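Slide 14.
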Amino acid sequence: MTIGQLALPDGCVVPAKARALHALLSGWFDETFREVPEDRWPGIRELAMSTKTVGLLQRWIAPNPGLQSDFERIRAAILQQNMRNIAWMIRTQELLQSGEIPALFFKGTVRSTEVYGALDCRPSNDVDILVRPCDYLAACSLLQSEGYRPQVSSKSVWWHSCLGEAPFRNEEKNSPYIDLHHQLQQPGGPYPLNLNQFFEASSRKSFGKVEIATPSPGHAQLITIINYGKAMRAGEPTIGRLHELSFAIRKSNDAGSQELLTLARSQGLENLAKDALHRASILFPHDGSKSDRHPEFEPILSSSLSVAPNRIFARTRMLWSWSDGALGPRAGRFATSVARVAASDLWRWFESRIGRIA
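Slide 15: predicted structure.
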């Protein structure tokens, strides 16, 4: 198939390069190589870079000598960045182990290698670590004692309580950002009901001779869904998260979606999971079938690339649609979500006024 043959239907608002990007990403599902004319590549590449999917394209692009050098540069840059982050991940794990602080490493290189089986498919900009809330302050102190400087004020309620995280960096040794989390969600979406379950069901993943603690495959999927929700509320691209979600389910088994929904229900994330799975299945059907004939395909593709305009009160509607339960409990969870957003916005405004955050 030649990407240049993909034409937009009359009246479609989805850019041609967006459909071309989708077609290339679909190669992971239908296992079909696509030819990319050299004059179309710069636009596709730009969109892929902005959606953080450029590393996924190379697997199913038909060999093209004119593009080969660019592919090699992209692959080498991603690989170098991810290998560096793995080294710092191992170093940080050893530090936390010395302080007897249980930690899970998630997202980034850990997740991309688990799903796609390669280190050069998706770049990782930082190292994400989850600790229990009771260990958060001790972990912060331990990182600082070893030269990791906090990038935000220790007094910031917005960072430490509302967002539930803080970035650190060892500037003398040019480390990546080390994002230390004690919660997985941020104001604007449903929070997991049982964070301890992520630790109790954790897995071990080997990097060379070192084993890293990571979320189980199912809980890693929940984190992908949570991050999908964060991106939706922020108006950021979600196509990479939806691709990951669908491909991970394809790799598991036919019951993967139902198992994931059962786990999501136990964590109060069922409606958010249903939304993400619905969109993922339309963009990237697990069986590799044709997706662009679905009536919802174009608006979902537009939304996944952040080219669709947000409707009025869109974020409030998201909060309601993602709240689980019957009417009464659902209203209570929705009110809690709204209150969290209001408190977060207030703290952010106050701390920016007094110079505590930029």
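Speaker note: Residues 1-12 have pLDDT under 50 and may be disordered.
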